Amino acid sequence: MTLREDPRLTAFGLIAEVYQGLGEKLEQQLAPFDMKPLEFEVILRLGRSPESRLRMTDLALQAHITTSGVTRVVDRLEQDGLVERAACPTDRRGSFAQLTSAGQARLDAILPGHLEVIERWFTSRFTQRQLTDLLTGLHVVRDAVRPDATAGIS
Prior knowledge:
Elements lengths: L6 H24 L6 H11 L5 E3 H8 L3 H13 L3 E5 L7 E5 L1 H21 L6 H18 L9
Antiparallel strand pairs: 1-3, 2-3
């Protein structure tokens, strides 16, 4: 076997292809809501956080974008009335991004179709045991390469 035939390359290549393919399907699902994938990522992370809010720095870490990038995304979502900023009571320099009621409603409208795409193109392809094993493995790898992925979640 040559290095070009190494199954590690195949595994990594398959993960990249699956991610890209699912991303395209999800982007199509978001289009009618005038929502870009990164904007959806932000409102989803806020919606799944305690009190539907995160410190801006934690949101940037979780979404794997720069602090200036998260500022731009939150600015756009704030203009649409989906997110609002709130001052941090313990740090004058810090602020929170918080989902508004309109943001909650938009997230609730998007999620059924989002979950349908995930089910159709991803989770339905596995047995329950395979899915459990996959999730366990993905958590191990994610925690190794992105230990800050759950920043700000207690």
